[in-house]
Design a protein that fits this description.
Elements lengths: L3 H6 L13 E2 L10 H13 L9 H20 L7 E4 L2 H15 L5 E5 L8 H4 L7 E5 L10 H7 L4 E7 L11 H10 L3 E5 L11 H4 L3 E5 L9 E5 L1 H6 L23 H6 L1 H13 L7 H27 L5 E3 L11 E6 L3 H10 L2 E2 L1 E3 L4 H6 L8 E5 L6 H14 L1
């Protein structure tokens, strides 16, 4: 059982007077930041805000903290240290990757994208059509939003070089079978790029075990600073053309970050692992092994979220005044719940705000998915998203407020 009091004690937002009485249900847009990240960021800005890797002490400490963040996150995710890099955002990282593939691919070759994705992991890839690259769309089921691997098999052939899909959608919420999809794609000779932005806040995955060639997520949605985190496996990373400065071409973690990194935020990202370690130790998890400790925390988070999510799904799944997007079984999805209403969603979110419920209404950059499911992106959906630091009383408050409004 997750020690929810311990968890909430790690997040200053829960002690902040201006946030008292507010239940936060728009975590898919950005999570609260844990104290460990804030402490590291404050220390960097006050003690080490100098150019890193110079010979003087403040600079050496600055560089060491940046290296620590990369090393510890990579170890937790089951990849080599230089296979993990930071960028200004996941959207920017994806755009840079698309430019690299633009140079690698030949006209007539193909990539596969989905219409389940956030625009960040579909728009940049679709633009490759302007270069003569064939773009094939793996379409979701219009009723359920489900991505069927059998439909992917029908799209795969010797021309396909890359398959892009989300670990889970930011509106459908269903957790896609990454290992199965990756195996199908690799068997057809294609590389795999997974958008993990909507999944990573619910437990960082072991990318080494899952198998994709690229895995992307956003630190600011995972209790950290505003950074995009990218895992690029070595085989693909050395094949793709260098997108950074020419003198960084031999350094894997610099090849796809043409902009200089935000030193302080990279260093502060180690605080994310500090927090995961604190959770592991508090709950009697494994004493050694970064991936084992990460898996323990992942399961701890998911167990708590599933227990809180099912009552919310049960409260909305059979209503005739709304449509729940995605599965109604909590174990099959992330706690990101999109509801298509019989009216525009944003005014309902505004009404919830008056009752101390922080939620969102709109298309959430997933207009393709909404349109495919027959939902007007202009009216949008009411999105209710939470993480493991949400407690049962907040979910109860949400269910009561929803029932009164709808």
């Amino acid at each position: 059982m997750l020690d929810i009091d311990f968890v909430r004690g790690q997040f200053p937002a829960f002690q902040e007077p201006t946030l008292q009485g507010q239940a936060f249900f728009e975590n898919a847009g950005g999570s609260y930041t844990c104290a460990q990240v804030i402490d590291r960021l404050t220390r960097y800005y006050t003690q080490r805000k100098v150019q890193p890797y110079a010979p003087y002490e403040a600079s050496q400490l600055a560089g060491a903290e940046m290296d620590e963040a990369r090393q510890r996150l990579a170890a937790l995710m089951g990849v080599e240290t230089d296979e993990l890099s930071f960028g200004p955002s996941t959207t920017q990282n994806t755009y840079v990757l698309a430019q690299a593939f633009r140079q690698l691919l030949q006209p007539g070759e193909a990539i596969i994208v989905t219409n389940q994705d956030h625009e960040a992991n579909t728009g940049p890839w679709r633009r490759l059509a302007d270069e003569g690259i064939e773009v094939r769309e793996w379409e979701i089921d219009p009723q359920t939003g489900h991505l069927d691997p059998q439909k992917l098999e029908a799209l795969l052939d010797e021309k396909v070089r890359l398959v892009c899909f989300p670990h889970c959608s930011n509106v459908v919420g269903e957790i896609n079978p990454v290992t199965e999809i990756t195996a199908l794609s690799h068997a057809a000779g294609a590389f795999v790029c997974v958008d993990g932005v909507s999944y990573a806040p619910h437990g960082l995955p072991n990318v080494g075990d899952l198998g994709p060639d690229i895995y992307l997520f956003s630190a600011y949605k995972t209790y950290g600073p505003h950074q995009g985190v990218m895992v690029m496996r070595r085989e693909l990373g050395t094949l793709l053309p260098n997108q950074g400065h020419f003198f960084n071409g031999d350094c894997l973690y610099k090849r796809f970050t043409p902009a200089g990194p935000d030193h302080a935020q990279v260093a502060a990202s180690a605080g994310m692992v500090d927090y995961f370690d604190a959770l592991c130790d508090q709950h009697g998890g494994p004493a050694e092994g970064a991936t084992a400790r990460g898996a323990f925390v992942h399961d701890l988070m998911r167990g708590h979220e599933i227990a809180l999510l099912q009552p919310l799904l049960d409260a909305v799944k059979d209503r005739n005044d709304l449509r729940l997007l995605g599965p109604s079984e909590a174990a099959k999805r992330a706690p990101t719940v999109a509801l298509a209403l019989n009216r525009p969603a944003l005014p309902v979110a505004q009404k919830l705000a008056e009752q101390g419920i922080m939620a969102g209404g709109g298309d959430f950059y997933a207009g393709r998915a909404l349109s495919a499911m027959g939902v007007d992106p202009e009216e949008g959906v009411l999105r209710l998203s939470f993480t493991h630091y949400t407690n049962r009383s907040e979910v109860d408050k949400l269910i009561t407020a929803l029932d009164q409004l709808l």
